[in-house]
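Write out the 3D structure for:
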Amino acid sequence: MVEKLAQHDLDVAARIKEERREAFLTWLAGAEFEGKHLEINAKTYPGTCSWIQQRLEFDIWLQNSGRPVLWCEGKPGIGKSVLASNVIEFIKAKFAMAQPTAVTYVYYDQQEAKLTSISELIRSLIQQLCYQIDEIPESLLQLKRSCQSPLAIATPSNLARLVQSFHRTFLVVDALDECQSDHRHQVIQLILGCENIPFNVFVTSRRDSDILDSFTCPNVTVLNMTAFDVADDIHHFVTGQVKSLRKRGHGRRLYLQDDALEQTIITELTEGSDGMFLWVDLQLINLCRISKSKQDELVRDTLTSLPQGLEKTYDQILKQIEDNGGYMRTLAERSFMWVLYADRPLRKVELQQAVKTNPGPFLQADQLDLDISSLEVIFDACGSLLIEAGDFIRPIHFSVKEYFLSDGVTGPNMFSLLRDPTLVSEVLALSCLNHLMELLQPQSSWKNIYDLQDFIRAHPLVVHASQVFDHHVAGATHMSTTLRASLQSFFDQRQEFHAAILQLRTIVYPVTLNDLLFSTQSVLSDANAGTVLYSTRLYDTLGQHPLCQDLQPPKYMLHQAAAGGHALLCIRCIENGEDVNQPDGNGTSPIYHACLGGHEQVVSTLIDYQANIDIKGGHYGCPLQAAAYRGHMRVIEILIHRGADLIGHGGAFSSALAAAAAGGHEQAAYVLLMAGADVNYQGNKNSDRPLHLACAGGHKAVVKLILKQANVEIHAVGRAGGTALAKAAANGHKHLFPLLIDAAGVDIDLVSKHYGTALQAAAAEGHYDVFRDLIDRGADALVQGGRFGTCIQAASAGGNAEIVKMLLDQKNVPVNVVDGHYGTALQAASALGHLKIMKMLLDASAKVNIQGGHHGTSLQAAACWNHKEAVVMLLEHGAKVNASAGYHGTALQAACAGTHRDVVQLLLSRGADPRLEAGYYGTPLQAAAAKGDVETVQSLLGRGADAKQGGGKYRDAVHAATAKGHLDVVEILLESQVLN
């Protein structure tokens, strides 16, 4: 017994230690590079980079018997990132069984800047090291307990102490030359400080002058990566690529009639590559294009004149673009401008729209009509120098941007525009301004979220243009007459135009209905050009420009300055007498705007001037909730440190934790939990519990974090009567099921008020894969309850025929059970007009005349919602046209109440009795009279309806028409009484 108790104590202690470790790692979470590493490593051919293991410099460095830093420098496209990936894997394998050895790494990428400071780098390295130890040092845990920012840990001293936990520690830094220049020197200092932090560092980069100067020192061994080193790798790569391209059945393909030509291509590309994998890729793209003619001689001719090096290759590609002619040439130029000079990477749909915008006088009128329905057209026009990267478009390699922006471009003059940042900024500024004025001149701001959603879908560039036009104006340092005139026109627009601009600027991606709701509630009815000036980067650029001297300052200047991140302007406004806590027209305070925008300097400034950090107002309820929803960590930390209340401020969310969960911000959620946020707090009726919001959004990391909290109520019913599992199922997030069902033990068949069960939720929303997954996990399709009553009714309402078929194939699923809002499955399908499902149910012996549910009968449900074909199908299967039940009493009254004239005539032609008394309106005539439907009233009177017949809400038809003010109907009814 004593031994069992002792073992139990050990198990508890181990579990506590592991939970503490995971909590720390969640809190610390910063930039991670494992995904990038795995992506690069997956593309590597077997045996690639084995050459480095034969190099004496590498062996000495690996044995720790020489200099601690090994710098492998090479030209662009030679495969440095692949080499870094292979070195990481080699070190892991070699030291797997040795004394404790840690491997850390970072991949710099100028097109995807994950690390914006030296602190972010150190934080990432500490995080990687902590994943490789069993127990987090107490000194680091203490920093977390003190609720400091994770960046407070990111110091060289903390990193050094952690490194000392290992016998050896390796750091691999790839593409140091792509590290942002404003902190590259600090990274180099960290690398060179190996005597303070005992790393063995492997660095790859190009031979940039600042790196060369810094690494010319006793701590660094230089290894020059040459074409000779990678010759075998190039040969394997070329051979594999050529053979793969010949076998492809779709996409890019290499067409060769003569098999012997394959070896010629391999030989020529291997010998001509000069070690550059990127060069090989670009030549293969060109050869695939030429081989489409299926004339081997053209391929052979191309092989005899291959360009030398990347620059000559880019020259050749530009020449080909020039030769393509006007349309494709114009498309290429515009695409390059938008991608190379974008304030942020463009999404695919944004670029497709962007190339069609009018950039003013810089292109001729015959070049303006670009209709791009396929991204492949853009890629072809640009010579495949642009590629897809997830949802975004980016250059195939960083060297592409360098080539265009350098003075050494020798391509056609048409691309000289791309070498002038000021001119390109002006073109893009004009494109954005023209696009906005073209779309928004006839448009007011949006009050309806679905109207706004439809507008954004129809015009995918409009949000981007509204958010970056000021960036491009700032880049046009020498303002031309054309840009000045365009800005003047922009400022001269009506107030509704400027309100729409400001509304679009509130939208963030990915767009959610909650964001759109916030946007529709943020409309400033009194917005003007001055409002736009003060709340954007235009103020920094044009604040003192004559163009803006006559602009009327916004009514709420302090609010707009806070929204725009202008700390000094905020100070000036306050010192000139503006109230730091005054609400604007939408009831929101300056500090709310600053928190929403993530402007930490403005937030601190406003607090110093006595801003109320708990002030209520705004769509998200209060400043902390706004910052939490957007995931602005530094702002959240400032507010918590200043004592902000964590709950109870209304708005879209009832707590800051709920806001962070809805936004999917794991780190924000963790910081709030550590500060004491209640994991189960629901608060006002408009919000939901944090777990439910995270499940609805599919935010796996946040769900995992919340489920780790000891007191979380996993079976609680949230807003609208749904469970967390039902929320996940309804929104199609089956990836959460292992966490909720397998790990947390959520009851898969738990019944709640709205969806009933999770299985019903998946069925009602038509998510077949989710439904299938739940069935495979043992969900019971026969459990009843909730809005739909049965699973078959939910599936029939959801309209997914596959789900209905799966249920019907189970044989034991009863199709005629009466339960739920729609009564039966057939009534649900009829109400929503799902003809295919109706036929499936009828073939499965569904009874058409069963009564129950809101509509009473299936026929009344179909008639109520104007589904004429469904009405015909039901009548043909024996539906009783005069059956009395449900809200409207009869199918005819339901059709009259909806003014569905075609259905009314159909029912009358099938014998519907207009004199039957039942339902809300008493008679069909009273329903038609209440709706003011003259045509139907006359038709019913012609069929024998009596204007004096009583019953229903309004007593008779005359009173119904009178109550609703339909005097023409009253006159017709009174005349019919006289005639009768």
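The radius of gyration is 34 Å.
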